[in-house]
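In this supplementary section we document a worked example of the pipeline. Step one takes a protein sequence of length 534 as its only input; no multiple sequence alignment statistics are reported here. Step two produces a three-dimensional model, which step three serialises into C-alpha cells for compact storage. The input and output of this example are shown verbatim.
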Amino acid sequence: MKHLLSLTLLLAAVAQAQTVTPPALPQPAIPVSAVTSTVTSAAASARVRAPAGPVVGLVQNGLAIWEGLPYAQPPVGQWRWRAPRPLPAWSAERLALKPGNVCMQPGSYPGQAGRGSEDCLFLNIYAPQNASNLPVMVWIHGGSFRTGAGSDFDPRTLAREQNVVVVMLNYRLGALGFLAAPGLTENGSVGNYGLLDQQLALKWVRENISAFGGDAGNVTAFGESAGGMSICQQLVMPGSRGLFDKAVIQSGPCTDGGITTARDSALSVGTATAKKLGCGGNDAACLRALPANKLSDVTPPNSGTVPFAPLWGDPTLPQNPVTVLSSPQALGVPLLIGSNLNESRAFAAFLGHKTGDVDLLTYLGAAVVLNKWQALNTLFVYSPRTYGSRVLALSAANTDSSFACPTNDIARRRSAFVPVYSYEYRDETVPNKLPPATGITSYGAFHSSEIASIMGASDSVVNYSAFTPQQLALARTMRTYWANFARTGNPNGAGVPVWTPLTAPDFVVQEFRPQRTGPVNDFRKVHQCDVLWK
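The serialised model returned by step three reads:
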C-alpha cells in the first residue's frame, strides 16, 4: 500500500541527489473557531447533564457546541501504551468551550514543527440548537496514523444544514498510539492503542450523546484516509460490536498489507524502534520514561507506508482485516465508500524539479520501487506521453494501485453481505491552495479534496469560499447524501439524484462532478483495475 506520504518518501529515496522544494502536503482543515474559556455575553450557554456529568457549552448561530470533552483518563506515565481507561463521572459543571489538546505528533511535512500532548483523549460535539434524537455522525480523522486531530475540522455547516449531531474525536498517534514492543504486551495484547481509543470514544458517544440531542441508537462512524482505514479495522474488531450502526469510508482502502501488519512483524519493528530509542524491546520502564516528543518524532528503521501501523493477530484484532472484510464475519452495517479521481497528485508534486519534470532515472527507479513485479507493465500502461508528464504517470499508477482499485475491490466484496453505496469524487477543478509544481498541470480531485464539501468549510488545501455555484450545489448534494445515509442507511432522498447501491453484475459507482452527479460503469476501466491491479 503506497499511501499518503508513501509516494513522496519512496520517490525521494530513489532520487536522493535531487534538490526539491516541497509544496505543502494536504493538511487538516482550519481549526474550529477559537472560543474563549469563559461564557461571553455574545453567546448563550448550552447546559446539559449527561451520564458523564454536567457540561456547559456555547450556542452560536443556531448550533450548540461542546468542545474539549474528555472521554478517557489521560494515557500518561504508567498508563502510556495501555488500553484507555473510562473517565469517572464528574459532579461539578465542566466548561466545554474550546478544543482539548491534540495528540502528540510530528510536523506533517519536513520542516514543520510538531505539536500536541499525551493528555489528548478529547472529543467535540456540534448539534443543532434544541436538538432531540437526531442522527449522530462520529468523525475519525486521517493522517497516516501519525498526525491530525478532530479539532482540525469544522463540521458546523454539516450539523446545521443537515440537522445531525457531529462528533469529532482524537486518538493516540504514531509510536504513542501503535508501538508494539514485546515488553508492552499485556494479556496477550500489544499495540493498537489508537484503535482502542476510538472504541472507547464510540462507547462514550453511545452512553452520553442523548443528552446532547443525538440518537444513541443511530450512530454512523465516518472518516477519511487513516480515519477510513480505522473504520475498516473497527468493522472486524470484536470490541467494536454494538458501537456504531453505519460506516462511511472516504479514501481509506482496507485491503493492502501495509494498512495493518501481522503481530510478529509489528513486534520486530517495535524491537528495532526501542533499540533506536536507547531501550531494549522488553524494557517497558525505559520506554515509559522517555520524553513524549522523542517518541512522537521517532521513525522505525526501514519504515514502510505507515511507520506505526495497526496490527492483527492479537485479542484486539485477531484476524487479518483483508480476510474478514471479504466474509460475513465483519460487522454487518451498511457501508458508503469511495475515493477521489486523482488521489496521488498532491503527493507526486514533491518530485517536481524547479526546471522540469522528473528525470528519466528517477522515473524508472520509482516505477520499480512503487510497483515491483508490475513495474514493466506500469511503464507501458502509464506512459508519460499519455498522461502529459512522468510525474503525472507515476501519480496515476499510484492512485489506481493504492486507492481506486483496492477501495472498489472491498466495496464489491462487502456488497455480498451488506448494502453498499460506492462513489468517486471527480471534481478536477476544485479550488486548492497547493503551490504550483512542474509536471503537475492540475491537481485535480486529489487526496482529501472532498472533505471541504462534506464539512461545508474551507480548509488548508481546499478553498471552499472560491467554489462556483455548481461546486456549491455538488457539495450540498454530497452532504445530503452523507446525512441521509446516517439517518437511514440509504443516501437517497428528496432533492438529490438517485444513487444505486453497488450490486452485481454491473457494480455501478456514483460519480460526483460539478456538471453531473449520477451512475457510471467505467470505474475499473478508468483505473486499470482489471488490467494490472486485480
